[in-house]
Amino acid sequence: MEEMIAVLLIVSLFAGGSTGLLPEKEVTEKLAADPNQTINEIRASADQIITSQENVTTATQLLAALPEREEKYQIAIYDIKDKTGQYSEIGSMVVSQGATEMLITALVRSRQFKVLDRVNISNFMTEQTLVDQDRTTGNDGPVTGELTGAHYVIDGAITEYQIDKKTGGLGLIIAGKGGQQEYAVASCAVDLRVTDTTTGEVVWAKSLKKEIIGERISFQVFSFMGNNIVEFESGRGKQEVINLVVRTLLEEAVYQLSVSEVL
């Protein structure tokens, strides 16, 4: 059954006009002649087919350099909110609303803690409720009463976002650098804290602020950290720049927490 589903998926993929290593007709013929071999060949060529790449920053290497702990504290993650109150010209939030997910990824990458998701706990509780109400068959679903408890809670917020008031709130400052040369600055700050779940004591807190400088590459167009391009007048791409700053700040905060010996 699994092989049949795989064959149908592959045929539909190529029939839909997607590009791959082989033309549609050849793939169809190979699948008809030897589906198992064709599937294995495609799987073996996965590196050539996959176009996505790992989403990392320069700070990611700090987490990768940490030795994995044998004994890990259980740490629950709650929502990291945007408390800057900043909105774009069209009314959307400028700062990333994905900070919680970024923090979870950073903590998992650090390999220092047992990370407990409390942001989506309603999803887990729904699954457990289905079991309690005998709405699942056999022994399917979770074992109730076995959720892992947290030694600590980590939460916080994005607390600052730099805005150039003179440009109508585009979120970038244009300034002179070395005479007539112009550059752009984007900055924000995050505040995180770790609380002991037994005593309620805040055992660790950190406020980090970062700014990145974009070099001018043409009229009102600036490049931040390589591929992040911002058109200053239209604001295109500025959110991606701030998201990069937020991810970097969170990764650096996790690194500092990991080496602090507080936990």
UniProtKB/TrEMBL annotation:
<keyword id="KW-1003">Cell membrane</keyword>
<dbReference type="Pfam" id="PF03783">
    <property type="entry name" value="CsgG"/>
</dbReference>
<keyword id="KW-0472">Membrane</keyword>
<keyword id="KW-0564">Palmitate</keyword>
<protein>
    <submittedName>
        <fullName>Curli production assembly/transport component CsgG</fullName>
    </submittedName>
</protein>
<keyword id="KW-0732">Signal</keyword>
<dbReference type="GO" id="GO:0030288">
    <property type="term" value="C:outer membrane-bounded periplasmic space"/>
</dbReference>
<dbReference type="InterPro" id="IPR005534">
    <property type="entry name" value="Curli_assmbl/transp-comp_CsgG"/>
</dbReference>
<keyword id="KW-0449">Lipoprotein</keyword>
